[in-house]
Amino acid sequence: MDEAQDGTPSSGGRTKPPKNGFQNKTTTLSDVARLAGVSIATASKALNGRSQVRAETRERVVAAAEQLSFSPNSLARSLLSGRSGTVGLITHDLEGRFSIPTLMGAEDAFGSGKVSVLLCDARGDSIREQHHIQALLGRRVDGLIIVGARPDPRPSLGAMPVPVVYAYAPSEDPEDVSLVCDNVGGGRLSVEHLIACGRSRIAIITGDASYGAANDRVTGAQQALSEAGLEMVGGQALFGAWTEEWGRGATRSLLARHPDLDAILCGSDQIARGALDVLRELGKQVPTDVAVMGHDNWEILATNARPALTSIDMNLEELGRRAAAKLFEAMEGNPSHGVEMVPCKLALRASTAS
Predict the structure, then answer these.
(1) Do 201 and 305 have their domain in common?
(2) 349: in domain
(3) Is 292 in the same domain as 328?
(4) Residue 67: pLDDT band by 50, 70, 90 thresholds?
(5) Is-above-0.90 flag for pTM?
(6) Which of 42, 50, 217, 319 is the most buried (most CB within 10 A)?
(7) In a domain, 308, yes or no
(8) Would 352 be classed as within a structural domain?
(9) 39, 38, 40, 31: which is closest to 4 by C-alpha?
């Protein structure tokens, strides 16, 4: 086989031929075949994964294609490994508040393995979700991560040709693997922090009672209060909407009935912003008179509040990293089952720190 590798120096200031003997031009299948020492037909079969080609021949052709940059290296590798080097992430979170940190965490983990993440937004529509799933499978993704819009159980996708991990919203099927935030733990952490700040008259304002997460956070908060020998101000949490308006209205109502309360635990940062507004209007000092705490650690709200808002961070980047790790394990033939809780963490700011 003539490899044309003499590398004869050129004159007149022209560039020397590359060491592989091919001029700087668009590489063709013929170039790959010549470097690999096979026919064009064999090179084509090898690069298209046809079964008629011996493994050692396929490896030689793929190596030649990589050397000549005939196709993306990831594609060449995938022909040998049977993988595309991509995974799909489908979100139902329209605002991106929960899916973007999860995606960042997943990309963090996948990046070390040179795996790309393809993001699709299903917009809360199951039909659109199925469309995206079929499109991603058509691109030969190696696995899927499904991020829900709200942290409540969702229907399983059932049997799939690739591994699937559910994040934020767990699958209803215990045979699936799901990664979720520990909302009960988040509620406990909130109250433990407020008690550590010297608060004992703690009221709770939260959002939509139909959200399992809202109830779980109250459950955790109530557990921590009981263990400390304290009672919730008003005897129960106030459920409403995830809005500043609800936070303002509920705070006015609480203060009218319980003017001696010294802390308000809110189910979201939006609710907490509303509570801060009313306390300011009534001349209450935060945190001297009343400490205020949020949930979600939505930084654009929490850091721009006055004072800056202490909040519970749901640790979504860690959730994304763990989801990626679970998907990697499943892709390697070691699938997990059941629901794994990811602990929340405290984002401490001036609204509780005295």
Answers:
(1) yes
(2) no
(3) no
(4) confident
(5) no
(6) 217
(7) yes
(8) no
(9) 31
Q: Is residue 92 very low, low, confident or very high in pLDDT (cuts 50, 70, 90)?
A: confident
Find out whether 307 and 271 touch, Cβ atoms under 8 Å: no
Residues 108, 155 share a domain: yes
- pLDDT tens digits for range 24-44: 456 777 888 899 999 877 887
Domain of 34 in residue numbering reads as 1-82
**223: CB partners within 8 A, 6+ apart:** 184, 187, 188
> Which comes out higher in pLDDT, residue 328 or 95?
328
User: Could you tell me if residue 152 is inside a domain?
Assistant: yes
pLDDT of residue 212: 92
263 and 332 inside one domain: no
* CA nearest to 220, candidates 186, 194, 197: 186
Question: What's the pLDDT band for 54 if we cut at 50, 70, 90?
Answer: confident
Q: What are phi and psi of 170, to 5 degrees?
A: -75, 155
Last residue of a domain, one of 36, 59, 82: 82
Mean pLDDT comparison of 46-60, 87-101, 305-319, highest-scoring range: 305-319
Position 298 pLDDT exceeds 70: yes
Same domain, 336 and 193: no
